[in-house]
Amino acid sequence: MNFISHYYFDKNNNDSYQILGSVLPDLIRNADKDWKIFPEKIPTSNLNSRELQSIQQGWKKHIEVDRIFHNADFFLYHQHQLKKEIAPVFHGTAIKPFFIGHVGLELCLDHLLLKHQLIDINLFYSQLNQIDKNILCNFLSLNKIDDHTKFLKYYNSFISEQYLKTYIKLGSISYSIKRICMRIWPDTISHTQEDELTFAIKNYISKLEENFMIIFDKIDSQLIDG
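Structure for Acyl carrier protein phosphodiesterase, as requested:
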């Protein structure tokens, strides 16, 4: 799941550090794709503050949410169906429709949460902005990430740009997919293909919209603290 969908499970949580932890895996991956860390394996006794323990708790929740989501029939069905819908757009390119079906479904769910006002995106950014950066850097150091400047540059940009808000627009979903593809495959898609992708996503969202909350309810019911 993507940032907004992860936040859905903490939308009523006042602990900014747990919310940080729940999206930190994706933040770290975006800041540097080569950073591989496993904070869930650190003994709680090594985390000498409530805030550090909350970050770890949020991280563990992120892992559990993704585990349930990626094993759910909902995900397996819809990522395959979306793959079939968008496959013609990428015909003749090196881009794998299976990958786009996966990423695209997650972005569609983010869009629907925003559209139906099921989360407060302003509160999300506000909570991330409240955390003590020294505590965040301490958590990074415990996980052998020493280039704090690099991470904080990305983190501060993530908060100031507030790009997630743009997912209310379908064109922003297509643009995000295009940018993700550019990190993996050297050839990007044309403006025409991007428009075709937007059209395919629009059509699929119309099918997904009626019952998309099924997956959120399923995950919520299976979380240990849900």
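The mean pLDDT is 94.
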